[in-house]
TrEMBL record:
Transmembrane segments: none annotated. InterPro entries: AadA_C, NT_sf. Keywords: Transferase. This is DUF4111 domain-containing protein. Pfam families: AadA_C (PF13427). Residues 147-256 form the Adenylyltransferase AadA C-terminal domain. The keyword rRNA-binding does not apply. CDD domains: NT_KNTase_like.
Length: 260
C-alpha cells in the first residue's frame, strides 16, 4: 500500500502519489519500490529543499519502459502546483544497490525541476545510499535496509575526502559565485563532507552547519551563522552575495580540505 503521508506537505504527498503510480504503470513487474532520501529522509526537508526520490527496478528499463518514464517526467514539472517542480531522483537497479561494487553505475535520472531525463551516476553515490538505508522513507515497497547493502565507513570517508580536494572548483564551476545561494552551498557542502570524514555518517545541510559551529574552529562561526541565517533567501539569480562572503567561503573550503 502506498504511504499516504510521507511528508508534512499535503501537496507534495499528492505529487509523490502521481510519481509512484506513474512509475508503476511504466515499469510493470520490474517495479520493486519507491523511496525518499536526501533532506526529507533526514528530517530536514522544507520549502527550500528539493525532494529526492529513488525508484528501485529489477532490470534496466527497456525502450518502451524508458519512453514511458520520460513521458511521465516531461509532464510532471508542467502541472499546476509547487512541488511538482522540485523533484529529483533516479531509477536504480536492484542488483546495483546490494554492495559497494555497484557504485557509480549510471541510472536513469531526472535533475531538480527538469523535464528531460538522462543516464547519470548522480544518485549512485555512497552518501545517497547511506541516507536511503539508514533513514529512507518508504513510499511503497520493501524496507530500505532490505534493498540497499551497507556502505562501508571507509568508502564514505574516502569519497568525502576526495570531494573536498576539488570542492570549490566543482561547485563554482556550475554555480556562479555572483549568486548568493552558491556561496552558501559551498560552505554547507564543506561542512557536510567534514562531518562524513569525522563520523562516517551523513548529515542534512542544517545539522552539518550546527555540528560545524559546535565542533569547528570558532574563527569560522560568523561565516556559518551567516549561511544559516540566509537560508530563507532561497535560490535567486539576482540575489548577490554579501561583500567578502565568497572569499570567506573559499577560505573555509580550503581549511576544511586541509584538516580533513
Amino acid at each position: 500500500m502506498l504511504n499516504p503521508h510521507p511528508t508534512r506537505y499535503a501537496e507534495l504527498n499528492g505529487v509523490l502519489h502521481d510519481l509512484v503510480t506513474g512509475a508503476q504503470e511504466a515499469l510493470g513487474d520490474s517495479f520493486v519500490g519507491a523511496y525518499l532520501q536526501g533532506s526529507f529522509a533526514l528530517g530536514a526537508g522544507d520549502l527550500h529543499s528539493d525532494c529526492d526520490f529513488l525508484v528501485v527496478v529489477r532490470e534496466r528499463p527497456d525502450a518502451e519502459q524508458e519512453a514511458a518514464l520520460r513521458a511521465l517526467h516531461r509532464d510532471l514539472p508542467h502541472r499546476d502546483g509547487f512541488w511538482n517542480r522540485h523533484l529529483e531522483g533516479s531509477y536504480a537497479l536492484a542488483d546495483d544497490l546490494l554492495s559497494a561494487d555497484g557504485l557509480d553505475r549510471e541510472w536513469l535520472y531526472v535533475d531538480h525541476g527538469n523535464d528531460q531525463m538522462e543516464w547519470s551516476t548522480h544518485c549512485n553515490q555512497p552518501w545517497a545510499r547511506w541516507i536511503l538505508r539508514e533513514h529512507g522513507i518508504t513510499l511503497v515497497g520493501p524496507c530500505p535496509a532490505d534493498v540497499v547493502g551497507a556502505v562501508p565507513d571507509e568508502v564514505l570517508r574516502d569519497r568525502a575526502r576526495a570531494g573536498l580536494a576539488t570542492l570549490t572548483d566543482d561547485v563554482l564551476g556550475w554555480c556562479p559565485p555572483s549568486v548568493a545561494w552558491c556561496q552558501r552551498y559551498l560552505v554547507v557542502q564543506a561542512c557536510r563532507s567534514l562531518y562524513t570524514v569525522r563520523t562516517a555518517q551523513v548529515a542534512s545541510k542544517r545539522d552539518a552547519l550546527r555540528w560545524a559551529m559546535m565542533h569547528g574552529d570558532p574563527r569560522w562561526r560568523p561565516l556559518l551563522q551567516q549561511v544559516q541565517a540566509d537560508r530563507d533567501r532561497g535560490f535567486d539569480r539576482d540575489d548577490h552575495p554579501r561583500p567578502g562572503s565568497v572569499d570567506e567561503a573559499r577560505a573555509f573550503a580550503a581549511y576544511v580540505a586541509a584538516v580533513a
